[in-house]
Amino acid sequence: MDYSTFSILQIRQLLLDKKVTALEITNFFIDRVKNIDPKINAFITITEKEAIKQAEILDVKINRGEKIGKLAGSIMAVKDIYLTKDIQTTSSSQVLKGYIPQYSSTVYQKLINEDAIIIGKTNTDPFAFGGSTENSGFFTTKNPWNLDMVPGGSSGGSAAATAANLCHFALGTDTGGSIRQPASLCGVSGLKPTYGLNSRYGITSMASSFDCPGVFARTVADIATVTQITAGHDPHDATSIDQTIPDYTQLLDSINLSGLKIGLPKEYFSSAINSEVKDKVMETAKLFESKGAILKEVSLPSTDLGLAVYYILVPSEISANMARYDGIRFGQTVSNSTDIISYYMNTRGQFMEPEIKRRILIGTYALSSGYYDAYYTKAAKVRTLIKKEFTDVLSEVDVILTPCSPTTAWKIGDKCDNPLEMYLADIYTVCINVAGVPSLALPCGFDSQKLPIGFQLIGNFFEEAKIMSVGHQYQQITSFHTEVPNL
Ligand code: GLN
């Protein structure tokens, strides 16, 4: 039996009906990962021992007739920037290699508490700095649809693992697109929730006022099931929201597509976009129109400034957050130092990947006393403007629909020597993080090379239920999300 094709709810039901044991499901996935992962390199660590132990404990519970969790038997992959107690967490950087956390991130722990089973820790750009996994301090993950291509990033390992059916769902983080862009390039779905919906506690920080933990899955229904559990206040994260979480799983059909106002921002369909991507995303908009939705051209005039704002504010926060990696508290250390300063410099010099250093330099520069007002303060002001543009447009339309990436997946190595070109590829995702609103990425077809194309549905603050309902209904009338690469 191929257990990768079942939904989270179906897997739980199979267990309750005693049609299968958690150990059988787990062994099926361990075999699958062992066969397929060597081709795509989605995982840094495969947690076979932990998975089997969790499955055995779950089977005992079932046999004793005890209550089981809402995610019982579902297999999850976890981006390697989520702290997982007793399981190595590297953030895909040599600087943290060998680090075994003493505690777990809140989001991960909540899922484990509901009997999800961890299959492994996935590759990412180091500390999530990047858009292709090529900056990883270990290796590059390959796109399951074409092994010569990048999977996108930074959560490329989680996206590739989901696309290759190596898990039922995978955890990612989205600071500037790192869930939506790899979801789009790998042909899976992914939710970047409103900032503050999911706790950031226990996830290595990139830019603390941007970072959004979220989930990848094949279907919106599974994303709703997982988000239902992860969302909500965490006393360990003062920026996590303290409000009642709606029952997303019960609201999947709540929005009426007929009469739904969909905004198409003209800045997102400009000349920068590849024509095949543009055509497919427009076709998607037309499909909604055929179901009664009303399409409306809207404008987000500061879109062009988004990248500049993002690439000033984010490295600024990064430069502060990276200060803790001094070789004393976590990860790898050097032995060739005579005094404390050279110890810091040697550790950071030797073990931090080039992209980390680049961002620390940019951030430190932007925050330095002579330049603070010219760069940081100005960018912070434009951030407010961008946020206002989103809330203004979202008071006129119900959701905004745009592409996630100007192109489909590119060849591994193509943009490596040109960081600026890599940054420019983030044009359609970063503004959403600058504003803090939620966005759901969904697959909507393929280009002529059979590489996936995706689009995103952006809602107003805390409108996850709305965008998931629209996305779920889209998946009821299309089948792109069911396509699996040949591996
Ligand atoms: N590609 C973007 C960057 O490099 C987004 C990263 C992210 O969301 N973690 O900053």
Strand order of the largest sheet: 1-3-2-4-6-5-10-11-9-7-8
Q: Please, how many helices?
A: 15
CATH class placement: Alpha Beta
Oligomer: single chain
**Percent of residues in helices:** 25-40%
CATH homologous superfamily heading: Amidase signature (AS) domain
Question: What is the CATH fold-level name?
Answer: Amidase signature (AS) enzymes
Largest sheet: 11 strands, mixed
Number of domains: 1
Name the shape in a single word: globular
Description:
This protein is an alpha/beta fold and 487 residues long. The chain has a single domain, classed as Amidase signature (AS) enzymes (Alpha-Beta Complex). Helix content is 39%, strand content 13%. It is built from 15 helices and 11 strands. It has an 11-stranded mixed β-sheet, with helices on both faces. A hairpin with a 5-residue loop joins strand 10 and strand 11 (452-458). Helix 7 packs antiparallel against helix 15 (464-477). The relative contact order is 0.14. The mean pLDDT is 97. The structure holds glutamine. Glutamine binds at residues 128-131, 154, 173-178, 206, 314, 426. The site of glutamine (GLN) has 14 residues, from strand 4.
